């Protein structure tokens, strides 16, 4: 497997001639220089605070004093694409190693900003389906790399944002300019597993609350509500009484039971 990790550094530095005279420093404004290992740092990159002034001859020795402020790993979540990358930086690690996928529904807090820091869209406890997507193409791709409780920032190129066209303002959301790079903050609060089960994969199961593993038996006690697609209930059992109702599984329901844990919804 290709290692897609990238190192992101933040440093303070001073650049001096050998006589001690200062020609550049991040200490003056207190803002460290942030860069990715492998990017051009000093010497020839025009406009970079670490660049050497033109009035210093190329054969003249200079001195840089560098203090490492932070070193974090960012990941290219599109590991099969070296050019059009989505870089992800984990701010807070989540629980366990299991990640949402496929047909799962996820609940997130998010804030999408432009490079200048202006927020174009933000909300709390938004629920969406990973297969259907949300906001921009990068959004579900980033969430699929996260565990429950994780917080991360993804740097999204225009190809995975809104491309050359951008996006006009919409309701309370600001416009996204053409060819804009987006900074997407996401906290994965929770997710609901959705799978196809049964013969021919004709049963669609959505887990609302995880339960505990129990021994598979033919007789179960449950509470149940049956609804049509429009939400109208056509059957309800075990809810109007304190005790769940008990029944023996037939062959058709055994598959559903085998995928269900005690206390699960």
From TrEMBL:
Keywords: Isomerase, Rotamase. It catalyses: [protein]-peptidylproline (omega=180) = [protein]-peptidylproline (omega=0). PROSITE patterns: FKBP_PPIASE (PS50059). GO terms for molecular function: peptidyl-prolyl cis-trans isomerase activity. Transmembrane segments: none annotated. It comes from the Eukaryota. Its EC number is 5.2.1.8. Residues 103-192 form the PPIase FKBP-type domain. The keyword Plastid does not apply. InterPro entries: FKBP-type_PPIase, PPIase_dom_sf, PPIase_FKBP_dom. This is peptidylprolyl isomerase. It comes from Oryza brachyantha (malo sina).
């Amino acid at each position: 497997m290709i290692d897609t990790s990238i190192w992101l550094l933040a440093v303070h530095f001073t650049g001096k001639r050998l006589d001690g005279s200062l020609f550049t420093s991040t200490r003056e404004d207190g803002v460290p220089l942030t860069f990715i290992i492998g990017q051009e740092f000093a010497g020839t990159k025009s406009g970079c605070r670490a660049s050497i002034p033109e009035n210093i001859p190329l054969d003249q020795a200079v001195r840089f004093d560098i203090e490492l402020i932070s070193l974090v790993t960012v990941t290219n979540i599109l590991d099969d694409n070296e050019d059009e990358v989505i870089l992800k930086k984990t701010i807070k690690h989540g629980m366990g190693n299991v990640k949402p996928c496929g047909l799962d529904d996820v609940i997130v807090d998010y804030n999408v900003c432009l490079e200048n820091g202006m927020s174009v869209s933000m909300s709390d406890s938004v629920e969406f389906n990973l297969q259907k997507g949300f906001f921009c193409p990068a959004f579900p791709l980033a969430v699929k790399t996260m565990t429950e409780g994780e917080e991360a920032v993804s740097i999204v190129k225009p190809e995975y944002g809104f491309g050359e066209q951008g996006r006009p303002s919409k309701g309370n959301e600001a416009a996204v300019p053409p060819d804009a790079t987006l900074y997407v903050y996401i906290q994965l609060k929770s997710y609901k597993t959705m799978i196809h089960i049964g013969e021919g994969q004709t049963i669609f199961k959505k887990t609302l609350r995880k339960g505990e593993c129990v021994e598979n038996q033919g007789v179960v006690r449950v509470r149940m509500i049956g609804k049509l697609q429009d939400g109208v209930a056509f059957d309800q059992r075990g809810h109007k009484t304190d005790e769940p109702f008990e029944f023996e599984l037939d062959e058709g329901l055994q598959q559903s039971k085998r995928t269900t844990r005690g206390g699960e919804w």
